[in-house]
Specification:
The complex is a heterodimer.
Chain A: H1 2-31, H2 38-55, H3 60-83, H4 93-114, E1 119-120, E2 129-132, E3 137-140, H5 141-163, H6 165-175, H7 177-182, H8 187-212, E4 215-216, H9 222-235, H10 240-260, H11 266-280
Antiparallel strand pairs in A: 1-4, 2-3
Chain B: H1 2-24, H2 32-38, E1 43-50, H3 57-76, E2 84-91, H4 96-109, E3 113-115, H5 120-133, E4 136-139, E5 153-155, H6 162-173, E6 179-185, H7 189-201, E7 208-215, H8 224-232, E8 237-240, H9 244-256, E9 262-265, E10 287-289, H10 299-312, H11 318-336, H12 345-356, E11 370-371, E12 377-378, E13 383-387, E14 390-393
Parallel strand pairs in B: 1-2, 1-3, 3-4, 4-5, 6-7, 6-8, 8-9, 9-10
Antiparallel strand pairs in B: 10-13, 11-12, 13-14
Helix pairs in contact in B: 3-11, 4-5, 6-7, 11-12
Classes of the chains: A mainly alpha, B alpha/beta.
């Protein structure tokens, strides 16, 4: 029974990683850049929800909508100002470093505006969850909601990418920017749309992250962001179902290693697994090998 | 000869400064008592350092205000050994370098005894200089072990690791638990130190440590495993030698999983009720080791709280209590040796240093405090419990 409890705890944590990883992998899959500031977009989303809901005396729905809109704008602006000019840079490292810079910028601006003191976040999900086996097993409402929302996002993204014109354009840009331009696709617009979607997902992930773990500080998004990145790589970066699987797996591994091996070593184990997976299957669980064409 | 020159320059500078003060009022934020006492020349000069501005201003202001309050009381009651006390404070903005600057400013003013610095890092930085000058330093609240590494530095509060010992004794003496679980931050020196001392001290106590689980600052969002393990092990008290920001999450998650042991924290827990938007009902019954509860009903506390509130408009915290005690401890030590203000800084230091190991002080933070030459206080631990969203004395 206690194993099941730990498994469910792992699922709760994993579902959060999964929903963050979706945004990561979406942006990487299309724009082929790692947006290290994704975790901080999440933090911005959380602060927006916190502030708006606070001002509207607890109306979290409006808060989430405002957060989605603001995060989308933030994503588009960041892309336009910080990433787009560097897209043609000689080294792909330039934009990676810029992303890290944006991450620190957002953290420090948040520090300036909201201060270092943590704020307690009121869960946007009031449902308590399921109680199984006579109350011995509890699945939190936020866990179930997170998994359902992750699955819905997964499906919608798959449909969007495979069935719509914009989605097809994204696939084309992902494959070959130059060729896509020649085919009449506006690469800049397509990538901007990708960032808009990725950032909107960050706002949703933020609402769920802070509902599950209700402590909000300027660094709230940083570590979950990195873990979600690991999850995305584990599942095969660029693969949307892979992010989901990677996230859940990572959460379960983390909780079980904390439980049965050592609570101090769990991070070492999680990152150790990443190294092993990458050695055995460099593209991750669901990643595809794309051959470089000469 | 050099010493004599130093002394001469200090005297000259302080004479000059005294002139400035008389001229423009508050060049060094000196209090009014200082000016009136200056006339007859012989006053004890006590300085205090703390962060008066910035993020930790609440600590520094508490220390400096309470020290001022104590000095005013002492002066009104006839001073120390018949001499009035002059008091001055300086801001260090929670910065070690600025703390040293503040110390130098106070030294120029003629300070003979230092209450400070308020915070650990600043206190350690300043102690390098007080050691050099052989000036007596009593930090009210610098709790890092290294704060008292020199023989001229003493402290009022418990050191970080010694809070572990004090907690174990408190839990044992008050029979708070039979099985104790611990959740600590293995990436933090403060938490780790307390944890280790707590476990060592728990040997042979009337409770048993059944689980000890760690987390790190890189892994401080999910505490379900640590809590579940404590719950499975049957812990009826969970010791949390951590800061309140992580503790607030632990309390929330324990509540979600329906686990309600007694939670017991140390001074890092102080502040849990100030977390914005935090549901304080979750902290109901939480105990924490703290030397001071403003609601205590003994005369000393009631007087202190009333006077402090009257003068500064807020309820004093433990930093204030530590600083208030610090000034009275200095007074007692000076009186024990019959020290006079015309003695050199170094002679005063030697006198007070030897007095510290002999006196038994009574104050807000303990009714019986003694020190050994290491500078660590020896006193009865006190705890508060949170009831209806406020601290209530647990004793």
């Amino acid at each position: 029974m206690s194993f099941l409890t730990y498994l469910i705890n792992g699922l709760s944590l994993g579902s959060i990683y999964a929903i963050i990883a979706l945004g990561y992998t979406m942006v990487y899959g299309i724009a082929k850049m790692l947006n290290f500031a994704h975790g901080d977009f999440i933090m911005v989303g959380c602060y927006v929800i916190f502030t708006v809901s606070g001002a509207l005396s607890g109306n979290s729905v409006v808060g989430i909508i405002v957060a989605i809109v603001l995060c989308t704008l933030l994503g588009i602006t960041t892309e336009f100002i910080a990433y787009r000019p560097l897209r043609g840079a000689a080294s792909p490292l330039a934009v990676l470093i810029t992303a890290i810079g944006v991450s620190y910028l957002l953290e420090n601006v948040a520090l300036l505006i909201f201060g270092a003191d943590i704020k307690s976040f009121t869960s946007v999900i009031s449902w308590e969850g399921l109680s199984l086996a006579g109350g011995q097993l509890k699945i939190q409402g936020v866990t179930i909601v997170t998994i359902i929302i992750s699955l819905v996002i997964l499906l919608v993204l798959q449909l969007f990418i495979n069935k719509t014109k914009q989605g097809q354009a994204m696939l084309a840009v992902a494959e070959d920017k130059g060729a896509a331009t020649l085919m009449g696709i506006n690469v800049n617009k397509t990538i901007m749309l990708t960032f808009a979607i990725g950032s909107a997902l960050a706002a949703i992930a933020g609402a769920l992250l802070c509902s599950a773990y209700p402590s909000l500080s300027p660094y709230t998004g940083a570590m979950p962001g990195i873990k979600a990145f690991v999850a995305a790589v584990l599942g095969g970066i660029g693969s949307i179902p892979g992010a989901m699987i990677g996230g859940l797996l990572l959460g379960i591994v983390e909780i079980l290693s904390k439980t049965y091996i050592s609570s101090q070593l769990s991070d070492a184990i999680v990152f150790g697994i990443l190294v092993i997976v990458l050695l055995v299957k460099p593209t991750g669980i669901l990643g595809k090998v794309i051959q470089e064409k000469v | 000869m050099k010493k004599f020159k130093d002394l001469l320059s200090v005297t000259l500078v302080s004479a000059m400064l005294a002139g400035t003060i008389a001229g423009c009022g508050n060049a060094t934020e000196a209090t009014s008592t200082e000016e009136s006492a200056q006339a007859d020349g012989a006053v004890f000069k006590i300085g205090a350092i703390g962060p008066l501005t910035g993020g930790a201003a609440a600590y520094g202001n508490a220390v400096c205000n309470a020290a001022e309050l104590a000095v005013d009381e002492i002066n009104a009651a006839g001073g120390i050994n018949g001499y009035q006390v002059a008091y001055s404070k300086e801001d260090d903005e929670l910065n070690a370098e600025k703390s040293v600057n503040a110390y130098n400013t106070l030294k120029d003013w003629g300070m003979q005894l230092l209450v400070g610095s308020t915070t650990s890092a600043c206190s350690i930085a300043v102690s390098e200089y007080t050691k050099q000058d052989n000036m007596f330093q009593l930090t009210p609240s610098g709790s890092a072990e290294d704060c008292v590494k020199y023989d001229n530095v003493f402290r009022v509060c418990f050191s970080d690791p010694n809070q572990g010992i004090a907690s174990a004794q408190y839990i044992d003496e008050h029979s708070l638990a039979t099985k104790v679980g611990i959740i600590y931050d293995s990436s933090d020196v403060y938490s780790n130190g307390i944890y280790q001392k707590f476990v060592a001290e728990s040997e042979g106590k009337n409770y048993e440590v059944v689980s000890a689980e760690a987390f790190t600052q890189d892994n401080n969002t999910d505490f379900s495993v640590q809590l579940q393990k404590a719950k499975d092990a049957g812990a009826d008290l969970v010791f949390l030698p951590i800061y309140y920001k992580d503790a607030s999450l632990i309390l929330t998650q324990a509540n979600t999983m329906g686990y309600a042991p007694t939670f017991f924290g140390v001074d890092g827990m102080d502040g849990i009720l100030t977390v914005e938007n935090f549901d304080t009902s979750l902290a109901e019954g939480l105990m924490l080791l703290t030397p001071f509860a403003a609601d205590a009903t003994d005369d000393l506390t009631v007087n202190f709280v009333t006077n402090y509130q009257e003068k500064y408009g807020e309820v004093p915290n433990q930093f204030a209590a530590d600083a208030y005690d610090a000034v009275y401890i200095i007074k007692q030590a000076l009186e024990a040796k019959g020290a006079t203000p015309d003695m050199s800084v170094s002679d005063i230091c030697e006198a007070v240093k030897s007095a510290m190991t002999e006196i038994e002080a009574t104050g807000l933070t303990s009714s019986k405090m003694t020190w050994d030459a290491s500078g660590e206080p020896n006193k009865e631990p006190k705890a508060v419990v949170i009831k209806d969203g406020a601290y209530v004395s647990a004793d």
